Amino acid sequence: MPFNAPTRYPESPRLFLKSPLGTALAAVEQDPDMTYFRILNRYVYIVHSPQAIKYILQENYKNYHKGRGYELLTYFLGKGLLTIEGEAWHRQRRLIQPAFHREKLQSLAQVTANCTMNLLREWQKREGETINFTQEMGRLTIDIVSRVLFGTQVAPDIVQSVWHSVNILNGLAANRLRSPIIWPFWLPLISNFKAKWYIEKMNKIMYGLIRDRRQNPTDGHDLLNMLLEARDEETGEGMNDRQLRDELMTIFVAGHETTVNALSWIWYCLKKNPDTEQRLRAENDTILGTQMPNFDNVSRMAYNTNVINEGMRLYPPAMFVGRKAMAADQICGYDIRPGHTIVVNIYGAHRNPKYWDKPNDFMPERFDSFAIKGDNRFVFLPFGGGPRICIGNNFAMLEMQIINALLARHVQFDLVSQHVVPDPQITLKPVGGVVVKLNQVTL
Questions:
Q1: Which of 29, 183, 241, 313 has its CA 20 to 30 A from that of 347?
Q2: Domain at 13-441, CATH homologous superfamily
Q3: pLDDT score recorded for residue 325
Q4: How far from the centroid of its chain's Cα atoms is residue 251's Cα?
């Protein structure tokens, strides 16, 4: 046992790999701050104290680099903003940040509304059908992120190919992350061949879109143009094709996968709690009336925002944040040695009864009195925290607010999936998706 360590998690570490969500909650019950277990010679600390999370993600974040999971993601996504460290990360963050400034969000809002209405027109022709809501939200968000990136609608076959490939790669990455032994990618394993095939498929799409834009430049204000034109303030250098590819891959995955799952859980919870859905529809009628949702008016829909926050509290898209200690340190008075793994237990923190009344209940109104600022940012952190908080968090919130508003106004549907099980892959997915029956779509 390491010197001055927290309480050791009593169960076998295999339980964490088999049931990470159950372990996340059990760890909170065992110790209010943190606990640990060993896998072979590796120490893994599960941290859920907001003070400790703040220390890891903000106050001393330079000592805690992206962990083993992100090293695996580098193979799939490349060296984009999600996976890189140090000065390379600072450089890329400076280059990309302007794409998510407030003035850009206004045009992104219009794209989201247009794409959502297009989907609802399709749904109107399918009244009475049973649909997989999760898959439909996947098609919608891929359409949105494609238009945001490239300014025009990407061909439907490419959108479908990206959606399918991202899901396959997500599952492959999750399986590798859960395995106690990480087999090298050069081994002739079926999973390795499959990963390489889908990565190459995505590469052809990404490099093709980059090549086409370089050969046929436009004066549009889409994200790809912004990335092509971005120059480092210190060196004057732009991004090469490989850097562009890695950032596009990251945005494609992070820009739709987390939103798809969040929307699925939000509407699953709304349908399980009809009073909350009715309150959302009432707010929609009062504030929007017949107006289209946009950047300005959805910001006044407080209950809509509460619903989104509460859905992400119960089912955070990223359940855990992994870090690796680079130098010796102390957390909560416990010794941390170089190379030790830190798991920021977001799922456990979001359901910790010390900070949340009736933590397993869907109660959007709790956010009426919960200010997401100060130390509360490390009690509720669906987008992470500290300097490496998700760069697209404001866009993701705006996107979900607009989609929620349009669904509440135009669609009546019943829940078919009465008991959906969460599947903790890279993101928290609903097993089999959330299935609903379209009763009426009024446009």
A1: 183
A2: Cytochrome P450 (1.10.630.10)
A3: 94
A4: 11
